[in-house]
Amino acid sequence: MKFTRFLALVVAAAGITIPTESVVASADTTQNLCTAGQIHVSLGRFQGTAGATVVPLIFTNTGSTCTIYGVPAVQPVADAVTLRPVGPPAHNDSMAMYPALHQLRKGQSVSALLRFTETGNYSVGTCKPAAIGGLVVSLLNVSHHYVRFPQTVCTALPSVATRLIGSGTQG
After folding, report:
1. At a CB cut-off of 8 Å and minimum separation 6, what does 67 contact?
2. Prediction pTM value
């Protein structure tokens, strides 16, 4: 409690304005969050960049109108049966950015960009590469969706990153 008051004093003294309306979802939007049963998760078109593979992670509404926002949690896993984690989960590349609320009607999609750093960018000892069969994706009420994605990731350090979801299917 003391730290919260101290932080409030520092923010006030510095003249910093925090736009809370961008951060807090209203009661109306949280009552209509998309559920796992109405969201289909898939991968978009792969793009290669210097030292990385980039691919949009697409969330498509298959049910009634609902709201979705945030950064998906992504965990590389061995396969669809065991869902055994392989390496660290994806880290968030959109720190200090505010999530936007996306209201999706049936058939509409939003996406988040995934970046996979090539394991060859690291020494074998630093990276400890391993094959994965796919990804487990979670976002708010949309949890534990398996997406098939044969790939190689580092197991000793994070080599997967994700970002806030945005409009459209390009990430």
Report:
1. 25, 29, 30, 32, 33, 34, 101, 102, 103, 104
2. 0.79
